[in-house]
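Q: Hi! First time doing this. I have a protein sequence and I read that you can turn it into a structure. Is that right? Here it is:
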Amino acid sequence: MKIAYICSDVEIPVFGHEGCSIHIREFTSALAELGHEVFILASWLGGAPPPDLRARVYPIEPAGLDAAAWAALEQEPVVAEHCLGRDLKSLFGNGWLPKLAVPLFEREKPDFIYERYALFGWSGAELAARFRLPFILEVNAPIAQEQDGYEQFTLVRTADRVEQEVFRRADAIVAVSAVVADWLKTRGVPAERILVAPNAVSPTRFKRAADAAGVRARLGLGDRRVIGFVGSFQPWHDVAGLIRAFACVRRAHADLRLLLIGCGPQRDELAASVETLGLAETVAFVDAVSHAEIPDCLAAMDVAVAPYACWGQPFYGSPMKVFEYMMAGRPIVAAALGQIADVIEPERTGLLYAPGDHDGLVAALERMLADPAAAAAMGAAARAQALREHTWQAVAGGIINRASELIRSGNG
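A: Yes, that's right. Below is the predicted 3D structure, encoded as structure tokens:
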């Protein structure tokens, strides 16, 4: 089949380093590995394409009077005063995208449209109606609800109405978790139109022998034992809690080091905390690395951690880091939150602790360090489970099956 993949989100660079960007590339590459042809229409590329990208990518940017009008609008004082820039850019982008995509669709002739849902993202629905194609929508979060109260999110009622209409028009909706699926039902989406497909990991990326020794040498880790984290430095990830737990555990393990890989708004605050705790010589911060480097970085870790604070509401996420930790065969310590608690089997594929529970995190780390053989066995079991149940190829196959059903039934 030929698939048109749409990402109209003005805050997701397709070539970026964060999970949302990696998700797009890994999923479309998995479709290509299954023998399908994929082209991506995106609002933002964000740099040079990775060498292993398997899909053609078309940037959708305004030109002519559209570009001039937007440039003028951005300069309007009222736009800045009322924090309208992001929302208006999303609205304008979804006005441009369908128009600019028409010649591409006429040339490419896709079999169905797959869109990553974004605020004000109606492009897929519009193109599906015009070309009479099946339309599959992927929903990774209750986005409008999630951003309610954010100062840059001002057109709340408009977003809500667009969301309801797009959900109504989608022939099928892919939910990244059971929590998102339940939320979709509260938005009026019939259960039979919902397919739950959690995030996953590519076995191909972890196929070659990882260069753990190279990473350790570059970072001066030597043969010391390493606790590690890969992700963004956001409040919900509770990296601050991980640093405090590391400080406690290290009292009994003088050789221990902490490796924190990523970027985000809390980076400076976390670095200051490390200094205050007197850990500057034992904690290594590494800026976000390319996705191709992740297997080497994970191989350098003796324990990989997915820390989370208390969420306070149903956790709708599907953390890719957990699946990548599993495929890397790392002993895992993770917060027992939402889908994580369904994926990690305690004592067999990792250890879980209650979100935000400092003592629970310390105890889990100490157990992993105290029994390396048991930790290695859990890492091996986690890798076997990832290969069996959590690959992007399996996710892509499920989407293709649903698309085939829609085509056979004449949807579109």
